[in-house]
Design goal:
The N and C termini lie far apart (62 Å). The radius of gyration is 19 Å and the shape is globular. It has five helices and no strands. The protein is mostly helical. 11% of the residues are buried. The longest helix is centred in the middle third of the chain and has 23 residues. Helix 3 runs antiparallel to helix 4 and helix 4 runs antiparallel to helix 5.
């Protein structure tokens, strides 16, 4: 086959979509490990702010390896067209969280992030989104602020 992408189930890449998705996960995970290399890890009793990003980054690498191997072994779909709206809105959501967390606090940063991410898809109602947002904010407060006692600003005035 000249000039085209491999057909699903044929050649080395049986599922090109899975293979390249796994490669992307690995790349993002390695970038996260590299960026967070100097973040404080703390001790097992008092975890530092670098523990969670490290766990997420290593998790992305492991999941990426699994998905990439699956793309080599199991037949799957070819690469389709890129859905730009979700790509742009999810990127904007993550960026807004990073820019707002220190100045606006955890709650506002999370709500803005979730509102932007909500518009990336069409499959949830406003009621579902509201319930999800409340649960996520309460979980973040419970885990990071109260449980791990991380020094996070909760509101702009705190």
């Amino acid at each position: 086959m000249a000039g085209g992408s491999p057909q699903p189930g044929r050649g080395l890449l049986k599922a090109p979509q899975d293979f390249y998705c796994g490669l992307l996960y690995i790349g993002v995970g390695i970038l996260g490990i590299w960026v967070g290399a100097d973040y404080p890890r703390g001790t097992p009793v008092r975890l530092g702010t670098g523990v969670f990003p490290a766990i997420l980054s290593w998790g992305l690498v492991v999941i990426g390896l699994i998905v990439m191997v699956q793309g080599l072994m199991t037949a799957g779909p070819p690469i389709g067209r890129i859905a730009w709206r979700p790509v742009i809105l999810i990127s904007l959501a993550a960026t807004s969280f990073a820019l707002l967390i220190e100045t606006a606090g955890l709650i506002i940063a999370m709500v803005v992030m979730m509102i932007l991410a909500r518009f990336a898809g069409d499959d949830h109602s406003n009621k579902e989104f509201g319930i999800f947002a409340v649960i996520m904010v309460l979980m973040a407060l419970g885990i990071f602020v109260w449980g791990l006692e991380m020094p996070l600003k909760v509101f702009p005035w705190s």
